[in-house]
Amino acid sequence: MRFIDSNVFLHALLIPRRKLTVEEQRVKDESKGIVKRIEEGEKVATTTAHLSEIVNIIETGLGLQKSLGFLIWVITRDNLLIYPTTIEDYESAMTIAKENNVSANDALAYLYMKKQGLTEIYSFDKHFNHLKDITKLQSTQ
């Protein structure tokens, strides 16, 4: 199982308001490929914090119904595990965030990966390059 960062879903689902650069289009296409693999049954995990981030951004960009539709899709997936997060998790993540110069949610993802023995993450976030013991995947490898 791999962890999936919120940005993968956002790149795959949001509709750009301008023409994408070649690199941006590559990221969007790779993200769509990863989501397709999840639809086909690949097992992935994320946290409630990341899920909340995705749902809120989809609502802003695509509207409430699309956001709720995505949430229903996630909830009904047997192969998408959602780890519940607590304030204590964020307290632990803050140390990781400060020591590695990453955001609180990136540190939270790393914390859960370590807790669950996950070593690979689907993400296009450069901050994961700062974290040791994990491999950032940017494609459907």
Explain the layout of strands and helices.
Elements lengths: L1 E3 L1 H8 L8 H18 L4 E4 H15 L1 H12 L4 E4 L3 H14 L3 H13 L3 E3 L12 E3 L4
Parallel strand pairs: 1-2, 1-4, 2-3, 4-5
Helix pairs in contact: 1-2, 1-3, 3-4, 5-6
Describe this structure as you would to a colleague.
There is one protein chain. The chain is α/β, with parallel strands linked by helices. The protein has a single domain (2-137), classed as Rossmann fold (3-Layer(aba) Sandwich), CATH 3.40.50.1010. It is built from six helices and five strands. A five-stranded parallel sheet has the order 3-2-1-4-5. The two termini are 13 Å apart.
The gist of it:
The protein has 141 residues and is an alpha/beta fold.
- Give me the Rg, rounded: 15 Å
What percent strand? 5-15%
Percent of residues in helices comes to 55-70%
By CATH, the topology is Rossmann fold
Number of strands: 5
Question: Helix- and strand-based class?
Answer: alpha/beta
Mean of pLDDT? 93
Largest sheet: 5 strands, parallel
Shape: globular
Instruction: Name the CATH superfamily classification.
Output: 5'-nuclease
- Biggest sheet, spatial arrangement of strands: 3-2-1-4-5
Distance between the termini: 13 Å
CATH class: Alpha Beta
Total separate domains: 1
Tally of contiguous helical segments: 6
Please describe the structure with a list of short key phrases separated by commas or semicolons.
single chain; 141 residues; Rossmann fold; 5 strands; globular
